[in-house]
Design a protein that fits this description.
Helices cover about 35% and strands about 25% of the residues. The protein is of the alpha/beta class and about 500 residues long. The protein folds into 3 domains: about 1-250, Rossmann fold (3-Layer(aba) Sandwich), CATH 3.40.50.300; about 260-345 and about 420-435 and about 455-510, Rossmann fold (3-Layer(aba) Sandwich); about 350-420, no CATH class. The strands form 4 sheets. A 6-stranded mixed sheet has the order 6-7-8-3-9-10, with helices on both faces. The protein has a 6-stranded mixed sheet with strand order 16-17-18-13-19-20, sandwiched between helices. Helix 4 (about 100-110) crosses helix 5 (about 115-130). The longest helix is centred in the middle third of the chain and has 18 residues, at about 175-195. The relative contact order is 0.12. The model has no long low-confidence stretch (mean pLDDT about 90).
């Protein structure tokens, strides 16, 4: 149904895609993998006709016999959302913050004249139910949802008109493992039941190995290996393919890590309530734990379980309604002093949402200093932080929109490192990174921890990462800690049924 023939793309004369040739018939799933900047998303945008100004394409991207690279904008508008649906990588930037989620799902139906206002609202409710949001009112706004819930809204929008081709660009990046399993099964069911073709773009090799009929591996704008999934997994003929799979199972060397006995972070009986029309909603219920100097502590659980709410309280961004939080014995609250904030930094889940798009990278990375005062060696500190996360010092002069999703996440990590903090809260810090960059970042974090005695609170949906980088793990469900213990013990012999469910749902890449 969709066929790319020698598709090449240049933006302002710079080659981006080089002779990409792929085919995807109805009822099949093609997994497209490769590191950030390899051209995966640009391949998808070429099919959709959503390329930036200054783009020039050669070759063909055909839907049936129609070359989409030659189609008019009017024709492409008729195809987008109707014949071709797309799930974008960052749900918060793909959703309109001024519209309810129900209205946004219904919008696709109304634009294409597929339903009246009432019919569109009913279909939107059905699609939201189908992606696991049955308990969420359609009148909610995007900011009232967790990252995983927002991604599910994007999926509901993409499948509203039952497109023939669905392009999924990192559709499960923000999802916990149980929700990810449900969404992947939903996508698999759509392909099976409706004959839809699915182009699945992902960094998660375990997901693509489980989902795809064929895998295409991209490097520097080229397809370097393409074939049936079983063949790719068995042979891994190209050196780059082998490097990707080796990085996927990478375990950073944490042998030099020294954990002190004194607690650095202490959370005692923390309670966080949100006001609602029906009364207070308890998002965090009497949570207690300690984090020692030099220790890595994992926090896992489904979207909406209270992880991000607890994180905001730990960072002193939101007040508690009960209990206490202390960093090295000093109370953490929205009123805490600048020096305490310098010692506590964070990498947020959504790198684009935490950046001011009008600021250059140099200003974004140096942002923590606006509270503590600008150091005399600011330029050198910025260059050092960018190099540490695999970027070039010249990137300091660019804007966030000039980077891929994974590169933006690296900028966010550089911003957290620049003040040389004692505790870093990593909220899905590597979720948007490809496996090779993720391996380097995890090695970097392990090295910094060994050198400086850093402590990490590692919040992640990726259980394989948590298992490889943490000393202890907390399992959170419905605002409470239901299991706690050494990481190896929790993963090999989980006691709580919920923990067993999480571990069973996590995809595993066979050796």
């Amino acid at each position: 149904m969709i066929e790319l023939r020698n598709l090449s793309l240049a933006i302002h004369g710079k080659p981006i895609l080089r002779d990409v040739s792929l085919s995807l018939p109805e009822g099949r799933i093609l997994g497209l993998v490769g590191e950030s900047g390899s051209g995966k998303s640009m391949t998808a945008l070429s099919i959709m006709g959503l390329l930036p100004h200054g783009s020039r394409t050669t070759g063909a991207a055909c839907l049936d016999a129609e070359d989409l690279t030659q189609a008019s904008e009017r024709r492409l508008c008729a195809l987008r959302g109707n014949e071709i649906g797309m799930i974008f990588q960052e749900p918060m930037t793909a959703l309109n913050p001024m519209q309810t989620i129900g209205a946004q799902v219904a919008e696709t139906l109304r634009i294409h004249g597929a339903a009246s206002r009432g019919q569109a609202a009913a279909i939107a409710r059905d699609k939201l139910d189908r992606v696991g949001l049955a308990s969420i009112p359609a009148t909610r706004y995007p900011h009232e949802l967790s990252g995983g819930q927002r991604q599910r809204v994007c999926i509901a929008m993409a499948i509203a008109l039952r497109p023939r081709l669905l392009i999924a660009d990192e559709p499960t990046t923000a999802l916990d493992v149980t929700t990810q399993a449900q969404i992947l099964e939903l996508l698999r069911g759509l392909v099976r039941e409706e004959g839809m073709a699915l182009l699945l773009i992902t960094h998660d090799l375990a997901v693509v190995a489980d989902m795809a009929d064929e895998i295409a591996v991209m490097q520097a704008g080229r397809v370097v290996e393409h074939g049936p999934t079983a063949t790719i997994l068995r042979t891994r003929s190209h050196p780059y393919t082998r490097a990707l799979f080796e990085a996927s199972g990478h375990q950073p060397d944490r042998a030099a890590t020294r954990i002190a006995q004194r607690p650095l972070l202490s959370v005692q009986g923390a309670i966080r309530d949100y006001p609602t029309r029906k009364g207070p909603f308890r998002a965090v219920n009497r949570v207690s734990f300690t984090l020692r100097q030099g220790e890595s502590l994992g926090l896992v659980g489904e979207s909406g379980c209270g992880k991000s709410t607890l994180t905001r309280a730990i960072l002193g961004l939101d007040p508690l309604q009960g209990g206490s939080i202390a960093l090295d014995g000093q109370p953490v609250s929205p009123a805490m002093g600048f020096d305490l904030r310098r010692r506590l930094q964070v990498v947020f889940q959504d790198p684009y949402g935490s950046f001011n798009p009008r600021h250059r990278v140099s200003r974004l990375v140096a942002e923590p200093f606006h509270l503590t005062g600008t150091p005399p060696d600011l330029r050198a500190r910025i260059s050092e932080a960018l190099r540490a996360v695999g970027l070039h010092p010249d990137d300091a002069h660019k804007y966030p929109h000039e980077f891929s999703g994974g590169q933006r996440q690296r900028i966010a990590i550089a911003r957290a490192l620049i003040t040389h903090p004692e505790l870093i809260v990593l909220d899905e810090a590597v979720s948007a990174l490809d496996v090779q960059v993720r391996a380097r970042i995890l090695d970097l974090l392990a090295g910094l921890q060994a050198e400086r005695g850093l402590s990490y609170l590692f919040i992640s949906h990726d259980l394989s990462v948590v298992r490889n980088v943490t000393d202890r793990v907390l399992v959170m469900k419905a605002g409470e800690i239901v299991e706690e213990g050494p990481t190896g013990q929790v993963f090999t012999a989980p006691e709580h049924p919920y923990t067993r469910t999480l571990i069973a749902a996590a995809p595993v890449l066979a050796a």
